[in-house]
Specification:
With 203 residues, the protein is mainly alpha-helical. It has 10 helices and 2 strands.
């Protein structure tokens, strides 16, 4: 039977370093405008669409989303990007105009922009697999879409919100059944991203 500490330690050893490596790519930008463009286009350093965006069938809308995002960005104040929630709302404003750009993409793009700015996430946004992992914890918090990290049990509350979101999604089966095996591939699998035009360019 796996304890919360076992799950936490497994995440820290097997997933945390890879997630930080992915973050480091999005921290590399000459300015915030370019960081926004890079976040929306959702391409890793190999030029491949990130697996979340490829897996859920939205690659074709990424270029349009990036174009609209830059138009919005040019009317924003830098102070509008001083915390994760305001960045999330900025991305959501773009999402509302792009069919197929969903809740998970909203979170992922906001997180990439936040990583560039060095903004830490202090809440967990519940969506898809993350919500399943949260339910497996059986916490007495109902009808919540955003849950502060401090509401989670030890040692999970030692993680930032983005890493805890990751843990809840990846380890949802183990959280629900402590006798289950740890996931063999803790990093979300890659999928074929050839359906998006790699020459897509937005100035």
């Amino acid at each position: 039977m796996k304890s919360y500490t076992d799950i936490y330690n497994h995440y820290r050893k097997n997933v945390y370093p890879c997630a930080e490596k992915e973050y480091s790519w999005y921290k590399q930008a000459d300015n915030l405008r370019y960081a926004v463009k890079k976040a929306f286009l959702s391409r890793n350093e190999k030029g491949e669409v990130e697996d979340h965006q490829a897996r859920y069938g939205i690659p074709k809308c990424l270029c349009l989303a990036a174009k609209i995002a830059l138009e919005h960005f040019d009317t924003q104040c830098i102070s509008d990007f001083d915390n994760f929630n305001s960045i999330y709302e900025f991305v959501q404003g773009v999402r509302n105009k792009v069919e197929g750009f969903g809740e998970l993409a909203n979170y992922d793009v906001a997180l990439r922009i936040s990583q560039y700015l060095g903004i830490e996430v202090h809440e967990v946004y519940l969506h898809r697999g993350t919500r399943e992992g949260f339910c497996a914890l059986r916490l007495n918090i109902k009808n919540r879409r955003i849950v502060p990290v401090e509401k989670f049990p030890e040692p999970f509350n030692q993680l930032s919100g983005d890493h805890l979101e990751n843990l809840l999604c990846i380890y949802k089966k183990v959280l629900d059944d402590p006798s289950a095996e740890f996931p063999k591939n803790c990093i979300r699998r890659k999928t074929n991203s050839s359906c998006i035009n790699k020459n897509c360019c937005i100035c």
